[in-house]
Amino acid sequence: MNKFAVFLGIPLILTASMAWGQAIEPRPVAPRQPEGQISLEVQEYQRLPKSGPVAKRLSAFQSFVDRYPGTQLSLRVIRDAAIFFILQDTGNDLESLGECVQWMGKHLESPAFEWARYRQASDSLILDRIETHVLYARVLASYADAISMGGAAERSAGVYNRALTVLNEAQTEWDNHPNFYRLRSDLAEGIDFTRAWCLHGKGNYRDALRGYTNFLDRFPSSDFVPAALWNASQCLQVLDPSGSQQRMSFYHQRLEEEFPGSPETAMLRSLRNSR
Hints:
275 residues, mainly alpha, two-stranded antiparallel sheet
C-alpha cells in the first residue's frame, strides 16, 4: 500500500490504493477509427516510457493524448500520469505538478473528452472516464497541498475548490449508473475520501471531520480507513482538543489495534514519543 503525507499544520494522508483499471480490451470513443489505427494506438501505448525523468515521461503522455484524443487508451494515459504523480510523491516538484494539472484540465475539459460523448459508451469506458476525473481531482488536491506548503494559502484554496468541483462532476456521472457500485466501489471511496481531504486542506475542519466519519461508516473495509482515522483525529484536535479526548483516543486505539504497521500508526507513535 503506497501512501504519502503532506504537512499543512495537520498531516494529510492520501492512500494511493484504488483499483487502477480492469483488464479489458480498449475501445475508442465515436467516431470510430480504422482498425489499423487502433492497432497502432495500442502499440504506441505499450511503448510509452515506464521510467525515466519526469519531463520525458510527461512529454510522452502529452504527445500520445494529442495524437489520440478522446479514446479509452488516452483516458488511461491521463490516468497513468495522475498515478505517477500520486505514487512518486512529487509535491516538491511544483513546476512539473502544475504542468500536469494544466495539461490534464486542458484535455478533460475539451470537446474530445466531454461527458456527453461517453453517455452511450460501454460501461468499461464510462468507468474509465469517471476514474480519470477522480484522479484529476486527486492531483489537483496534491497541487493545492504543494502550493499551501509554499505559503500561498489563498491560492491553494482556489485549487482545492477546483478539485471539489471536479469531484462533484464525477459524482454526478457516478450517480447516473447505480450498477457501477457493484463493479467499482473503490471509485465511490475515492470520491468521498478525496472530498474530505480537500475540505481538510482548506481548513474546513468541521466539514472534513463529517466527511471522514461518514466515510468510516460507509466503507469500513477500505484501504483509506487508517488515513481517515488519523485525519479525523487531527480535525478533532483543532476543533475541540479538550472535549474530544475520548473520541480521539478511540481513533488512535483503532489505528494501533487494527493497523499496527500503517504509516498513520507510526506517526501516532512518533507524536507520543516527542511529547
